[in-house]
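Regression test case RT-17, inverse folding.

Input:
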């Protein structure tokens, strides 16, 4: 179990919620002002995991009427949202994204469960909770995902938003 990390999601609105670890430490916070969604990796959680790399925040800027816009990690360059929701085969539920270091990953997308795959290895699994749970969903991360955890979380959130907004790939 030391090679995996569990984050619990509180809140079902894909534009505003938080993740906490099993000790109740805030890990990520997602909130929206009118046209921007900010994803923040919380410092207290990040300090618990020295292998975490990459940006501490991401900003998702939407177009008119919540159409696809662009994303920015930290103070980095703009990246098209569509580039982080790539589809390789028509009618496929898989969505591809590339980390800032050039690693291509795939989200297997469904409303109840999503898996992030690096080649043939699952690096993260997000799944809605059971009705008796006090949290909304559970995210299980493998240790190797810590090097791009903010990008992984941001693209998970982007895929959930795409489902909520009925974006077609």
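Golden output:
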């Amino acid at each position: 179990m030391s090679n995996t990390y569990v984050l619990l999601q509180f809140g079902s609105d894909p534009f505003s919620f938080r993740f906490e670890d099993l000790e109740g430490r805030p890990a990520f916070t997602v909130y929206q002002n009118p046209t921007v969604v900010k994803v923040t990796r919380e410092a207290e959680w990040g300090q618990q995991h020295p292998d975490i790399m990459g940006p501490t925040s991401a900003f998702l800027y939407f177009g008119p009427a919540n159409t696809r816009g662009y994303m920015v990690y930290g103070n980095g360059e703009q990246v098209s949202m569509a580039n982080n929701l790539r589809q390789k085969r028509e009618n496929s539920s898989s969505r591809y994204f590339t980390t800032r270091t050039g690693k291509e990953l795939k989200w297997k997308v469904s409303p109840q469960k999503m898996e992030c795959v690096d080649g043939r290895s699952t690096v993260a699994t997000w799944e809605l909770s059971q009705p008796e749970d006090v949290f909304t969903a559970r995210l299980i991360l493998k240790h190797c995902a810590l090097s791009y955890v903010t990008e992984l979380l941001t693209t998970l959130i982007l895929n959930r938003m795409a489902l909520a907004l009925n974006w077609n790939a």
